[in-house]
From TrEMBL:
Entry's transmembrane regions: 23-43, 55-80, 106-129, 135-158, 170-188, 234-253
Any one Gene Ontology molecular-function term assigned to this protein's record: ABC-type transporter activity
Homology family: Belongs to the ABC-2 integral membrane protein family.
Lineage: Bacteria, Candidatus Niyogiibacteriota
Keyword entries, A-Z: Cell membrane, Membrane, Transmembrane, Transmembrane helix, Transport
UniProt topology in membrane: Multi-pass membrane protein
Matches recorded under InterPro entries: ABC2_TM, ABC2_TM_bact-type, ABC_2_transport, Nod_factor_ABC_transporter
Compartment annotation: Cell membrane; Membrane
Protein name listed in UniProt: Transport permease protein
Organism per entry: Candidatus Niyogibacteria bacterium RIFCSPLOWO2_01_FULL_45_48
Length: 259
């Protein structure tokens, strides 16, 4: 119970911080809308015809996964700010597992990303993306899985970064290429060999693919919009989740002890 209380307390703290930051909520809603509405719409007008599937829906599912993944990863990395304010040291002297602390952070950022993605779903309804009870029952759990995966990725990144200034330089470098390599805006099977290889080693690729499986499951477009088998996606995400979580937490805690 002590570990569970620690997880829930840390998660609630992150959710409370979001609800008090209206600018962050607004930004979290606006940027995905720009990706889907402006970028997706312009690409749809130019290259979306003749693909055999609705390109705007394709972009919507990709951005849906990206927002879950990116929001959670960026939120977990805010532990660097806690470190610089000495709040993380107060956390790590608490008589609870270090993994419970990190998991609580990931859970909190997953709740945060869920609020942001709710706005994306509403926007999807507005632009004509088709939803059903079955689709939503699969899409939302897939998005949550992408969020937890992104949180673990964020733990691995923050474990190797020493300051917010360094993070501001590194995080776009490790994330933005993944947005274009993971198939958010274009099917990865159409990539040239070098980009196809880079796509396969980008964690976000598997989060996007599993979300598209959730949306297109049972539809004739499934084979055209997904790159791997859903079993492959899940196994890769599970393996990388535990690798990122355990190694990242170990390195982060060791760095805290050496301060």
């Amino acid at each position: 119970m002590r570990e569970l209380n620690a997880v829930l307390t840390i998660a609630f703290r992150d959710l409370t911080k979001l609800l008090r930051d209206r600018i962050r909520i607004l930004a979290g809603l606006v940027f995905p809308v720009i990706f889907i509405g402006v970028l997706g719409g312009s690409l749809n007008a130019n290259i979306g015809k003749g693909l055999g599937f609705d390109f705007l829906t394709f972009v919507f599912t990709g951005v849906f996964a990206q927002v879950f993944f990116q929001s959670s990863a960026a939120g977990v990395i805010s532990l660097i700010q806690d470190r610089e304010e000495d709040f993380s040291q107060e956390l790590f002297v608490a008589p609870v597992s270090r993994y419970s602390i990190i998991f609580g952070k990931i859970l909190g950022e997953t709740l945060v990303s869920s609020i942001q993605v709710a706005g994306i779903l509403i926007f999807g309804f507005i632009i004509g993306v088709e939803f059903s009870a079955k689709i939503l029952s699969l899409l939302i759990p897939a998005g949550l899985a992408a969020s937890f995966f992104g949180g673990a990725f964020g733990v691995m990144v923050l474990a190797n970064v020493g300051s917010q200034r360094t993070m501001a330089q590194i995080f776009p470098f490790v994330l933005f290429p993944q947005i274009f390599l993971s198939g958010v805006f274009a099917p990865v099977e159409n990539f040239p060999p070098i980009l196809a290889f880079l796509s396969k080693i980008a964690p976000l690729t598997y989060a996007v693919d599993v979300v598209r499986y959730a949306y297109y499951s049972g539809s004739p477009e499934l084979s055209k919009v997904t790159a791997f088998g859903v079993t492959t996606d899940i196994l890769v995400m599970l393996a990388l989740f535990f690798i990122f979580l355990f190694i990242g937490t170990f390195l982060f805690v060791r760095k805290e002890r050496n301060r």
